Amino acid sequence: MRTQLLAAGPGFEAPGPADFEFPPLFTVAGFEFTKPMLIVVLGTIAVAAFFYVAARNPKLIPGKLQFAGEAAYGFIRNSVVLDAIGAKNGKKFVPYIATLFFFIAALNISGIIPILQFPATSKIAIPAFLAVISWVIYNAVGIRRQGFVGYFKNMMFPPGLPWPIYILLAPLEFFSTFVIRPFTLALRLAMNMFAGHLVLLLCILGGEYMLTEGTGALPFLSWVGFLGGIVLTFFEGFIQILQAYVFALLSAIYIAGAMEAEH
Amino acid sequence: MEGNLNMVGYGLAAIGPGIGVGLIFAAYIAGVARQPEARGTLQGIAILGFALAEALAIIGIGLAFAL
């Protein structure tokens, strides 16, 4: 709902959801290849190349690149996966969670890399698909560990409560695990990137508008917009890493929750 | 000046999750300050609680653009 809040000034077109639509770069047999897809391809190549080069020629005394790769991977391994799932069961989920983290981080960070300047994860399809993968994995792990009936029973009827509570709790837990979890996992990442990109656009386009087309004192105040853009770029960089971390950690926590026999 | 009333509504709707996220991290910081060795355990719980509270704000901004 678009409403006239004040008298219309000279037209500053505020950035909106339309800025997330890109014309196709090229079309192959009716398949439109757009900028977000290009960023996904580049991000995949960048992550794969980094870890390939870092681990290609491992030495006992690591060089700079090997050290960087080991530190990054070790952080996810030790303080995300093994902490959340436990040292015994967590090992086989390290590759998945680490891939998830670095893939999302690369796509997020492309939002503040010059020229690319678009967080591909703000397109809902990418986080939605990643959330579906996580959803399938934690449900599969739960069913494999506890059996189909046991998994649902443990999830919907956590033991140790008086029975009338279950009338309220069972549908709530069911809804939370199967609908809310994957839904919010995807939406959190997409909307954080969406809102962050929108704020950056607003600051920079607003500053540019004030400088080039503003009247009166506006051109002299445009530095406020640009300063906001610079500060928020650093803030965005932090948020982008944090959101990748949150996605990876929540996936690990959900897997851990499906493994435990009791809540 | 044109604007979108949805965004004002979203601003109001974000107050609740904002308070919730603040309370969760306040409790987490207090917990770590009292018992630093419990940090690993508390971190998972804190992020989980933060994610649940933040989900409300995220649904809010999604709907603000969708409706």
Structure overview:
The complex is a heterodimer of chains A (263) and B (67). With 263 residues, chain A is mainly α. Chain A is built from seven helices and three strands, in the order βββααααααα. Chain A has helices at 35-56, 64-85, 94-109, 125-146, 148-156, 163-213, 218-259, and strands spanning 2-4, 26-28, 31-33. Chain A has a two-stranded antiparallel ribbon with strand order 2-3. In chain A, a hairpin with a 2-residue loop joins β2 (26-28) and β3 (31-33). The radius of gyration of chain A is 23 Å and the shape is globular. Mean pLDDT of chain A is 87; it is low at 1-8. Chain B is mainly α and 67 residues long. Helix content of chain B is 85%, strand content 4%. Chain B is built from three helices and one strand. Chain B has helices spanning 5-13, 15-34, 39-66; one strand at 2-4. In chain B, α1 (5-13) packs antiparallel against α3 and α2 packs antiparallel against α3 (39-66). The longest helix of chain B has 28 residues, at 39-66. The two termini of chain B are 21 Å apart. The relative contact order of chain B is 0.18. At the A-B interface, β1, α2, α6 and α7 of A face β1 and α3 of B. β1 of chain A pairs antiparallel with β1 of chain B.
